[in-house]
Amino acid sequence: MAKNLDKANKEAEQNVKAFLDKVANTPAPAKSGNAGRLIFALDATASRQPTWDQASHLQREMFNTAAEVGKLELQIAFFRGFGEFKATRWTQDSRSLTRPLSKVSCLGGQTQIEKVLKHTLKQTTEKPVNALVYVGDSIEEDVDHLCHLAGQIGMKGVPVFIFQEGYDPIAEACFKQICRLTNGAFCRFDAGSAAYLRSLLKAVAIFAAGGKKALRDYSKNAGGEILLLSNQIK
Protein backbone atom coordinates (compact mmCIF):
# COMPACT_ATOMS: atom_id res chain seq x y z
CA MET A 1 0.00 0.00 0.00
CA ALA A 2 2.88 2.35 0.88
CA LYS A 3 4.43 1.63 -2.52
CA ASN A 4 1.19 2.57 -4.28
CA LEU A 5 1.00 5.80 -2.27
CA ASP A 6 4.58 6.72 -3.23
CA LYS A 7 3.77 6.04 -6.87
CA ALA A 8 0.65 8.24 -6.68
CA ASN A 9 2.60 11.07 -5.03
CA LYS A 10 5.35 10.85 -7.64
CA GLU A 11 2.78 10.96 -10.45
CA ALA A 12 1.11 13.99 -8.87
CA GLU A 13 4.46 15.81 -8.68
CA GLN A 14 5.23 15.00 -12.32
CA ASN A 15 1.75 16.15 -13.30
CA VAL A 16 2.25 19.49 -11.54
CA LYS A 17 5.71 20.00 -13.05
CA ALA A 18 4.39 19.30 -16.56
CA PHE A 19 1.59 21.81 -16.02
CA LEU A 20 3.96 24.48 -14.77
CA ASP A 21 6.32 23.86 -17.69
CA LYS A 22 3.42 24.48 -20.06
CA VAL A 23 2.27 27.64 -18.29
CA ALA A 24 5.85 28.94 -18.36
CA ASN A 25 5.87 28.60 -22.14
CA THR A 26 2.43 30.13 -22.66
CA PRO A 27 2.63 33.54 -24.37
CA ALA A 28 1.93 36.30 -21.87
CA PRO A 29 -1.42 38.03 -22.37
CA ALA A 30 -1.25 41.35 -24.15
CA LYS A 31 -1.65 44.18 -21.67
CA SER A 32 -3.38 47.42 -22.57
CA GLY A 33 -3.57 48.99 -19.11
CA ASN A 34 -6.94 47.34 -18.49
CA ALA A 35 -7.65 44.55 -16.02
CA GLY A 36 -6.89 41.02 -17.10
CA ARG A 37 -10.00 38.95 -17.75
CA LEU A 38 -10.37 35.33 -16.69
CA ILE A 39 -13.35 32.99 -17.04
CA PHE A 40 -13.57 30.31 -14.37
CA ALA A 41 -15.92 27.55 -15.56
CA LEU A 42 -17.18 24.65 -13.46
CA ASP A 43 -18.92 21.37 -14.19
CA ALA A 44 -21.75 21.35 -11.60
CA THR A 45 -23.28 18.01 -12.56
CA ALA A 46 -23.95 15.41 -9.88
CA SER A 47 -20.58 13.67 -10.14
CA ARG A 48 -18.86 16.86 -8.96
CA GLN A 49 -20.86 17.27 -5.75
CA PRO A 50 -18.20 15.79 -3.41
CA THR A 51 -15.66 18.47 -4.39
CA TRP A 52 -17.95 21.37 -5.32
CA ASP A 53 -17.44 23.25 -2.05
CA GLN A 54 -13.67 22.80 -2.31
CA ALA A 55 -13.58 24.15 -5.87
CA SER A 56 -15.68 27.15 -4.87
CA HIS A 57 -13.38 27.92 -1.96
CA LEU A 58 -10.24 27.60 -4.10
CA GLN A 59 -11.76 29.91 -6.69
CA ARG A 60 -12.12 32.64 -4.09
CA GLU A 61 -8.52 32.16 -2.96
CA MET A 62 -7.33 32.32 -6.56
CA PHE A 63 -9.19 35.54 -7.22
CA ASN A 64 -8.07 37.25 -4.01
CA THR A 65 -4.41 36.34 -4.56
CA ALA A 66 -4.41 37.62 -8.12
CA ALA A 67 -6.07 40.83 -7.01
CA GLU A 68 -3.05 41.53 -4.80
CA VAL A 69 -0.63 41.60 -7.74
CA GLY A 70 -2.68 43.11 -10.52
CA LYS A 71 -6.12 44.00 -11.74
CA LEU A 72 -8.25 40.99 -12.62
CA GLU A 73 -11.82 40.76 -13.81
CA LEU A 74 -13.36 37.38 -13.12
CA GLN A 75 -16.47 35.73 -14.46
CA ILE A 76 -17.83 32.47 -13.05
CA ALA A 77 -19.66 30.10 -15.39
CA PHE A 78 -21.20 26.71 -14.63
CA PHE A 79 -23.51 24.11 -16.11
CA ARG A 80 -25.72 21.48 -14.49
CA GLY A 81 -29.02 19.63 -14.78
CA PHE A 82 -31.03 19.64 -18.00
CA GLY A 83 -29.40 22.21 -20.26
CA GLU A 84 -28.79 24.81 -17.54
CA PHE A 85 -25.84 27.11 -18.17
CA LYS A 86 -25.22 30.36 -16.30
CA ALA A 87 -22.49 32.97 -16.05
CA THR A 88 -22.06 35.81 -13.59
CA ARG A 89 -21.34 39.36 -14.63
CA TRP A 90 -17.71 40.41 -14.90
CA THR A 91 -16.40 41.82 -11.63
CA GLN A 92 -13.24 42.80 -9.79
CA ASP A 93 -14.97 42.34 -6.43
CA SER A 94 -14.61 38.75 -5.25
CA ARG A 95 -17.16 39.33 -2.46
CA SER A 96 -19.90 39.90 -5.02
CA LEU A 97 -19.37 36.35 -6.30
CA THR A 98 -19.45 34.61 -2.95
CA ARG A 99 -23.21 34.75 -2.39
CA PRO A 100 -24.42 33.57 -5.85
CA LEU A 101 -21.85 30.77 -5.97
CA SER A 102 -22.71 29.58 -2.45
CA LYS A 103 -26.32 29.07 -3.56
CA VAL A 104 -25.36 26.73 -6.40
CA SER A 105 -25.72 22.99 -5.84
CA CYS A 106 -24.92 20.19 -8.24
CA LEU A 107 -27.66 18.58 -10.33
CA GLY A 108 -27.53 15.46 -12.43
CA GLY A 109 -27.20 15.93 -16.16
CA GLN A 110 -24.82 15.66 -19.08
CA THR A 111 -21.76 17.82 -19.57
CA GLN A 112 -22.15 21.08 -21.51
CA ILE A 113 -18.57 21.97 -22.31
CA GLU A 114 -19.70 23.15 -25.75
CA LYS A 115 -21.58 25.99 -24.07
CA VAL A 116 -18.49 26.93 -22.05
CA LEU A 117 -16.37 27.16 -25.20
CA LYS A 118 -19.01 29.05 -27.18
CA HIS A 119 -19.49 31.45 -24.28
CA THR A 120 -15.73 32.08 -24.15
CA LEU A 121 -15.67 32.81 -27.88
CA LYS A 122 -18.52 35.27 -27.52
CA GLN A 123 -16.95 37.02 -24.54
CA THR A 124 -13.53 37.43 -26.14
CA THR A 125 -15.12 38.74 -29.34
CA GLU A 126 -16.74 41.52 -27.30
CA LYS A 127 -13.60 42.22 -25.24
CA PRO A 128 -10.39 40.12 -25.09
CA VAL A 129 -10.28 37.35 -22.50
CA ASN A 130 -6.83 36.46 -21.14
CA ALA A 131 -7.55 32.87 -20.08
CA LEU A 132 -10.23 30.24 -19.47
CA VAL A 133 -9.97 27.89 -16.50
CA TYR A 134 -12.20 24.82 -16.59
CA VAL A 135 -12.68 22.29 -13.78
CA GLY A 136 -14.48 19.04 -14.62
CA ASP A 137 -14.26 15.28 -14.53
CA SER A 138 -15.84 13.86 -17.69
CA ILE A 139 -17.02 14.48 -21.25
CA GLU A 140 -20.34 13.33 -22.73
CA GLU A 141 -20.20 15.32 -25.96
CA ASP A 142 -18.77 15.03 -29.45
CA VAL A 143 -15.00 15.31 -29.06
CA ASP A 144 -14.33 16.51 -32.61
CA HIS A 145 -16.84 19.32 -32.23
CA LEU A 146 -15.31 20.44 -28.93
CA CYS A 147 -11.85 20.43 -30.49
CA HIS A 148 -13.15 22.49 -33.42
CA LEU A 149 -14.40 25.12 -30.98
CA ALA A 150 -11.12 24.94 -29.09
CA GLY A 151 -9.27 25.65 -32.32
CA GLN A 152 -11.35 28.80 -32.78
CA ILE A 153 -10.53 29.87 -29.23
CA GLY A 154 -6.87 29.24 -29.91
CA MET A 155 -7.04 31.49 -32.95
CA LYS A 156 -8.36 34.23 -30.66
CA GLY A 157 -5.28 33.83 -28.45
CA VAL A 158 -7.13 32.57 -25.36
CA PRO A 159 -5.28 29.75 -23.55
CA VAL A 160 -7.48 27.14 -21.86
CA PHE A 161 -6.24 25.66 -18.58
CA ILE A 162 -8.08 22.47 -17.65
CA PHE A 163 -8.08 20.79 -14.24
CA GLN A 164 -9.50 17.27 -14.41
CA GLU A 165 -10.79 15.59 -11.31
CA GLY A 166 -10.27 11.83 -11.30
CA TYR A 167 -8.91 9.51 -13.99
CA ASP A 168 -11.37 9.27 -16.88
CA PRO A 169 -9.02 8.43 -19.80
CA ILE A 170 -11.48 9.48 -22.53
CA ALA A 171 -12.04 12.86 -20.91
CA GLU A 172 -8.32 13.28 -20.33
CA ALA A 173 -7.50 12.70 -24.00
CA CYS A 174 -10.02 15.34 -25.08
CA PHE A 175 -9.01 17.81 -22.40
CA LYS A 176 -5.38 17.56 -23.47
CA GLN A 177 -6.38 18.17 -27.09
CA ILE A 178 -8.32 21.30 -26.10
CA CYS A 179 -5.33 22.60 -24.15
CA ARG A 180 -2.98 21.85 -27.02
CA LEU A 181 -5.19 23.62 -29.54
CA THR A 182 -5.37 26.74 -27.36
CA ASN A 183 -1.75 26.71 -26.17
CA GLY A 184 -3.02 26.13 -22.65
CA ALA A 185 -2.19 23.44 -20.10
CA PHE A 186 -3.76 20.37 -18.49
CA CYS A 187 -3.48 18.98 -14.96
CA ARG A 188 -5.25 16.19 -13.05
CA PHE A 189 -6.19 16.41 -9.39
CA ASP A 190 -8.12 14.47 -6.79
CA ALA A 191 -9.61 15.07 -3.36
CA GLY A 192 -6.16 14.73 -1.78
CA SER A 193 -4.38 17.31 -3.93
CA ALA A 194 -6.07 20.52 -2.84
CA ALA A 195 -2.72 22.20 -2.15
CA TYR A 196 -1.54 21.49 -5.71
CA LEU A 197 -4.78 22.76 -7.18
CA ARG A 198 -4.67 25.91 -5.07
CA SER A 199 -1.15 26.76 -6.25
CA LEU A 200 -1.88 26.06 -9.89
CA LEU A 201 -5.10 28.07 -9.94
CA LYS A 202 -3.29 30.99 -8.36
CA ALA A 203 -0.53 30.69 -10.96
CA VAL A 204 -3.03 30.96 -13.80
CA ALA A 205 -4.87 33.86 -12.15
CA ILE A 206 -1.67 35.80 -11.61
CA PHE A 207 -0.64 35.07 -15.20
CA ALA A 208 -3.96 36.45 -16.44
CA ALA A 209 -3.71 39.51 -14.22
CA GLY A 210 -0.14 40.54 -14.91
CA GLY A 211 1.67 38.12 -17.22
CA LYS A 212 4.99 36.44 -16.51
CA LYS A 213 6.52 39.37 -14.66
CA ALA A 214 3.74 39.22 -12.08
CA LEU A 215 4.45 35.52 -11.60
CA ARG A 216 8.14 36.21 -11.03
CA ASP A 217 7.39 38.92 -8.48
CA TYR A 218 4.86 36.77 -6.65
CA SER A 219 7.17 33.75 -6.56
CA LYS A 220 9.76 35.61 -4.46
CA ASN A 221 7.62 35.03 -1.37
CA ALA A 222 5.31 32.24 -2.51
CA GLY A 223 7.83 29.43 -2.98
CA GLY A 224 6.70 25.90 -3.77
CA GLU A 225 5.10 25.25 -7.13
CA ILE A 226 4.88 28.97 -7.96
CA LEU A 227 8.65 29.35 -7.41
CA LEU A 228 9.27 26.37 -9.66
CA LEU A 229 7.23 28.00 -12.38
CA SER A 230 9.02 31.32 -12.07
CA ASN A 231 12.45 29.71 -12.24
CA GLN A 232 11.55 28.18 -15.59
CA ILE A 233 10.72 31.54 -17.16
CA LYS A 234 13.61 33.13 -19.05
Verbal overview:
This protein is an alpha/beta fold and 234 residues long. The protein has a single domain (32-231), classed as von Willebrand factor, type A domain (Rossmann fold, 3-Layer(aba) Sandwich), CATH 3.40.50.410. Helix content is 56%, strand content 16%. It has 8 helices and 6 strands, in the order αβαββααβαβαβαα. The chain has helices at residues 2-24, 49-69, 95-102, 113-126, 143-155, 169-182, 194-222, 224-231, and strands at 36-43, 72-80, 84-87, 131-136, 160-165, 185-189. Strands 3-2-1-4-5-6 form a 6-stranded mixed beta sheet, sandwiched between helices. Helix 2 packs parallel to helix 7. It is globular, with a radius of gyration of 16 Å. The termini are far apart.
Q: What can be said about this structure in brief?
A:
With 234 residues, the chain is of the alpha/beta class.
CATH superfamily name? von Willebrand factor, type A domain
CATH-defined topology: Rossmann fold
Biggest sheet architecture: 6 strands, mixed
- Distinct helical segment count: 8
Low-pLDDT stretches? none
Average pLDDT for all residues: 77
Q: What's the architecture in CATH terms?
A: 3-Layer(aba) Sandwich
Shape category = globular
Number of domains: 1
Fraction in helix:
55-70%
CATH first level: Alpha Beta
State the total count of DSSP E strands: 6
**What distance separates the N and C termini?**
41 Å
Series of secondary-structure elements, N-terminal to C-terminal: HEHEEHHEHEHEHH
Report the β-strand fraction as a percent range.
Answer: 15-25%
Radius of gyration: 16 Å
